[in-house]
Amino acid sequence: VSSAAERFDFFYFVQQWPGSFCDTSRGCCFPDTGKPAADFGIHGLWPNYAKCHGGDDDGQARRAVLGDDAAAASLSGVGRRGKCWPQYCDDENALSPWAIRDLVASLSRSWPTLSCKSGDSFEFWSYEWKKHGTCSNLEPHDYFARALALKAAHNLTEILAAAGIVPSESESYSISSVSDAIRKGTAFTANLECNRDTDGQTQLYQVYQCVDKEGKQLIDCPLHMRSKCGDDQIKLPLF
Ligand code: 5GP
Ligand code: 5GP
Asked: What are the catalytic residues (predicted)?
């Protein structure tokens, strides 16, 4: 069924804070299953290279990135630094609802869509499967089950709350206190991504944790992203 093993070095396990997805100028919509909990939700489990590849002669990345026209049109895996991750590795391999039927209840809670394009979270899961999951060397059930297990094993909302970092309209927190809390709670350093609310205030949007190629254990990140959070205080808005 699946083609040759995809070469990559680690996964980014990415979770989004729903309050920060929703309070931007773009806004959000709740899924058909209702308002999600005030908890980090899964965005994806993304195969990544430890080093971006420079040339156009890299067979693996090229094949993956040029997998279809849509992918070729938005070469998000390719930037000035080269190809940084594989994507769209097998467009024939669409996600079947049947393959994850026992995970649907759990996925609906932990991986809800907040996009206004569709209230059907399955569309979000199939998009993530097609773009990233098909490059993971995992079967769909393992891919989704491992993401769920990672979230459950390291509950970011609880980890932050234990450090006094709780959603608030008025409070803000230093980026280092957020980073330290996650390091203390998970034993590994995460990458933080911020965005801005409608007032232009910087807020914690996504947390990127690095995971081994099996999708099982957190690891030290081979690659640290440039933080878009600045050096200032950041918010964790209510949801
Ligand atoms: P953005 O440009 O919003 O940061 O990312 C757009 C999309 O590109 C993400 O949703 C994700 O699918 C992909 N992407 C962004 N950064 C990374 C990365 O570091 N690794 C991988 N594998 N995909 C990424
Ligand atoms: P990526 O940034 O992973 O390439 O793209 C995420 C895609 O999934 C976007 O096209 C977005 O419209 C869709 N999507 C559906 N639900 C969500 C959600 O809750 N959060 C994010 N970030 N994207 C979502």
From this structure: 43, 128, 132
Are 3 and 86 in contact by the 8 Å Cβ rule? The answer is: no
Of 227, 230, 236, 213, nearest to 12 by C-alpha is: 213
* Phi-psi label, residue 147: left if phi above 0, alpha if psi -120 to 50, beta otherwise: alpha
191 lines ligand 1 (CB under 6 A): no
Active site residue 43: yes
Residue numbers in the chain where pLDDT is lower than 50: 1, 56-75
Helix (H) or strand (E) holding 200: none
Each residue of 59-111: pLDDT tens digit? 444 444 433 333 333 445 666 667 899 999 999 999 999 999 999 999 999 99
Q: C-alpha distances in angstroms, 205 versus 11, 19, 175?
A: 19, 8, 12
- Tokens linked to 79: 């930037």
Residue of the CA atom closest to atom 8 of ligand 2? 124
Residue 119 C-alpha to ligand 2 middle, in angstroms? 12
Say how far apart CA 114 and CA 64 lie, in whole Å: 28
Measured from CB, residues less than 6 Å from any atom of ligand 2 are 16, 21, 43-44, 113-115, 117, 124, 127, 131
Tell if the pTM clears 0.95, that is, is over it: no
Residue 158 structure tokens: 């609880």
128 is catalytic: yes
Q: Which of 6, 128, 154, 193 is catalytic?
A: 128
Q: How far is it, in rounded angstroms, from Cα 42 to Cα 9?
A: 21
Q: What are phi and psi for residue 48, nearest 5 degrees? A: -145, 150
